[in-house]
Amino acid sequence: MAAGIESQNVDLQQNECYIEVKAKQANLEKTIEMQEMEIISCKQQITDLELKENLKLDEMQKLEKRFEIQTEEYRNLVEVLHEKMEKRFDKMDKSCDEFRTKLDDMEKKYSAICKTEKSAQLQVDAKSKFGYEMRLKFSPNDVKDVEKTYLSIYFDVIKGENDAILKWPNKCTGLIAILDQLNDKATKFSSKIRSFDGCLGKSPFDFEGF
Questions:
Q1: TRAF1-6 MATH domain: which residues (predicted)?
Q2: Among 2.60.120.10, 2.60.210.10, 3.40.630.40, 3.90.1150.10, what is the CATH number of 121-194?
Q3: Distance of CA 128 to the CA centre of its chain
């Protein structure tokens, strides 16, 4: 009788242990299954990200190619425009129209002696028919070591809106004539403007004893 009871207790313990192990095994298998599902999900996310990255790279390469093509087209258009402008410029008459301006109150301005009073200055902006922006500066008595009344004229080529398509370096000549309102030939002065090179430049022309 005692042996039978002891045998039943052992079987019961074994059953309980088996059930406990089985439950742990089931939980472990469930955990492993969930981890495998997470791994599969992560792999899918990585695949999707790689696909998106490849699509982005393809799109960037296409954009770079389009940019290169557009840049090349722009350069070609600029070259064609320059060639047309140069041909048109070569066919044009190389002389500009006469430009006249008046200096007011010159008698008062020339009454100043350069060593005792600061010289006055007048500037006039003009634009040639070729597109060059120019400026004439009239500066009485600006030469400090001259006792007589003195007029300096500065001819400047200044920056303009057409500089990108104009022909450089710029070479030009011209004639500046100073006329008094009196009909006296002795009061007429003229000076030929020297040629100069460069995108921007200036040349002074001096008239002593004016």
A1: 128-188
A2: 2.60.210.10
A3: 26
Q: Give yes or no for a contact between 114 and 166, defined as CB atoms under 8 angstroms apart.
A: no
C-alpha–C-alpha distance, residues 87 and 177, integer Å: 32
Of 174, 159, 183, give the one whose Cα is nearest residue 205.
Answer: 174
pLDDT in tens, 166-194: 777 776 666 666 666 655 555 555 444 44
Residue-wise pLDDT for 122-175, tens only, equals 677 777 767 778 777 777 666 666 666 666 777 777 788 877 777 777 766 666
CA–CA distance, 185 with 208 (Å, rounded to integer): 16
Please, is 116 exposed, middle or buried when counting C-beta atoms within 10 Å of its C-beta (0-12, 13-18, 19+)? exposed
| 176 vs 195: CA distance, rounded Å | 13
User: What is the Cα–Cα distance from 165 to 83, expressed in whole angstroms?
Assistant: 10
**pTM over cut 0.90:** no
pLDDT of residue 60: 92
Distance separating alpha carbons of residues 138 and 156, to the nearest angstrom: 11
